[in-house]
Structure formats: C-alpha cells, structure tokens
Amino acid sequence: MADLEALAEALIKGDRNKVVELTEQALNEGLPPKEVLENGLIAGMNVIGRRFKANEVYVPEVLIAARAMHGGMDVLQPKLVEAGIEPAGTVVLGTVKGDLHDIGKNLVGMMLTGGGLEVVDIGTDAAAEKFVDACKETGAKVCAMSALLTTTMPQMKDVVEALRNAGVEVKTVIGGAPVTQGYADEIGADGYAADAASAVDVARELIGIA
Ligand code: B1M
To answer: Ligand 1 atom closest to Cα of 101?
Structure first.
C-alpha cells in the first residue's frame, strides 16, 4: 500500500530512485496527486528546511533532497496539471545586477518549489527591468531577490522602486549574506529571509497561505 510517510522519509534521505518509485506507486494506487505532493514530497522538504535552519543538515544534504524532490515532481507534474491543480503562487527569483553568486539563490528556488510555489528563475546579474518584466509576464505574487555583495545590495532598492513605478502589484522579499531585516525596512521591501527555509515561510506568509 502507498506509504506517504515512507515517501517523505526517502526524500529526506535524498534517495531519488525510491522517491520516484514511491510517487509512482502512490499514484498507481489512486491517491490524489495533491495528497502525494503535500503529505509526501512537501512534507519531506519541510523537514529538510527545519533541519537546515537548525544547522542539523547542510547545503549538500539540501541539494540531494532537492534532486530527489525533482524526481518525484517529474512524475507528479503531469498528474497535477490533469487534475487542474495550480501552484499556490508564482515567485520570480533572481540575483541582482552585477552579482554572479547563485548557489544561495538556487537553494532558495529549490526550497520554494518544495514549498508548493512555482518558481520563475531569471538567473544572475538581473537588472531591475528584468525583474519587472518577469513579474508582469508571470503575474507573480512574490518577487525574490538575492545579493551576496555589499556593492550589489543597492540594486535591491532599484528593483523595489522599479516595481512600484511600473505599478506592479507584487510582494518583495530580499536575502543573501550581507542583507538584513534593517536593510529590507530601509528600502521598503515587504520581507527579509536569512536562509532558504525561512524564504519559504516569508513568501507563503506574504501570499497569505502560511
Ligand atoms: Co564571492 N564573495 N565573489 N564568489 N563568494 C563572497 C560573497 C565574499 C563574502 C567572500 C569574501 O570576501 N569573504 C565576498 C563578498 C564581500 C562583500 O561584498 N561583503 C565575495 C567577493 C568579494 C567576490 C568577488 C568580488 C571576488 C573578486 O572577483 N574579487 C567576485 C564577484 C563576482 C560577482 O558576483 N560579480 C566573487 C566571485 C565568486 C565566485 C564566482 C568565485 C563564486 C560564486 C559561484 C556561484 O555562486 N556560482 C563565489 C563564492 C562561491 C563565494 C563564497 C565563498 C560562497 C558563497 C556561497 O555560495 N555560499 C562567499 C563567501 C562565503 O559566503 N563564505 C563569497 C553558500 C550559499 C548557500 O550561501 O549564498 O549566503 P549564500 O545563501 C544563503 C543565505 O545567504 C540565504 O539563503 C542561502 C542558504 O541558506 N539567501 C537568501 C541567499 N539569497 C537569498 C534570497 C532570499 C532569502 C535568503 O530571499 C529572496
């Protein structure tokens, strides 16, 4: 019989093959895709998020769990589409202009996907206009920015202002090693997250699905 706890456990262990196998098994046994997603894959990723925040697991474990999550999602995605299940919201995510660091951003993206959100990743060195265009095109609910350099942090202010000037209704979240809550307050960003797991909590809270 399909065992979603075992599915979550396989994801936590980063066992991609097992995740794929148990996701297929659950669907073949007629479990609703939404239930497999929420009580299997997302449940497992939530545990990884909590452990990562508590420094009980580190970047490699998160990357391996995320790879397993992708394996399960590949199986689940067509079924979710068939069932008409939409992601809870779209997040445009990028590293700001002048900044090429993307390891943290990618982790944030994986955790957001794991948190049931659709992520549109616009890459690194993304200018304010690129964020604005992507938010307009996708109807994103959240615009998430990463910066690792003190010299590129001011770009976040430009993005917040460009979105406001363009009249785009989207919540802004910022993060990255040199970024602080104080800086978010200073530039009028709606949220700040210190790590990838917190970024999921902040984004979901801003969308109103926490
Ligand atoms: Co760069 N680099 N780097 N670098 N680099 C730092 C950031 C630095 C602190 C190193 C140092 O001097 N001690 C320093 C910045 C100093 C400063 O401004 N305060 C620095 C510098 C100076 C530079 C260059 C200028 C060096 C040079 O060329 N002279 C140059 C700049 C290039 C550019 O961007 N234009 C440069 C280049 C590079 C590499 C290309 C070699 C490489 C990047 C490879 C890549 O990303 N693909 C690199 C790396 C790897 C680092 C360090 C060593 C590691 C960064 C990293 O990936 N950490 C870094 C020193 C360090 O941090 N120890 C350093 C792991 C990652 C998981 O953490 O990105 O912090 P992090 O993400 C975390 C959180 O910050 C948060 O969640 C993540 C996970 O919990 N988070 C968010 C991140 N984004 C978020 C967004 C959110 C929420 C949370 O909401 C949207």
So the answer is: 46
Question: Do 156 and 179 contact (CB within 8 A), yes or no?
Answer: yes
Residue numbers of the domain that contains 202: 90-207
Q: What is the mean pLDDT of residues 125-147?
A: 98
| Ligand 1 center from residue 49 Cα (angstroms) | 20
206 in ligand 1 pocket by Cβ < 6 Å?
Answer: no
Q: State if residue 150 touches ligand 1 by the CB under 6 angstroms criterion.
A: yes
Count how many domains the chain has.
2
- CB of 174 closer than 6 angstroms to any ligand 1 atom: yes
- 191 touches ligand 1 (CB under 6 Å): no
Please tell me the distance from the alpha carbon of residue 173 to that of residue 196, in angstroms, as a whole number: 12
Q: For residue range 57-116, what is the model confidence (pLDDT) as tens digits? A: 999 999 999 899 989 988 988 888 787 777 889 999 999 999 999 988 988 998 898 888
Give the C-alpha separation, 64 to 152, whole Å. Answer: 30
210 lines ligand 1 (CB under 6 A): no
Residue 121 bridge partners (DSSP): 93
- 157: domain CATH number is 3.40.50.280
Cα distance from N-terminal residue to C-terminal residue, the chain: 31
113 and 161, same domain (yes or no): yes
Domain boundary among 66, 82, 98: 82
Ligand 1 centre to CA of 107 (Å) is 13
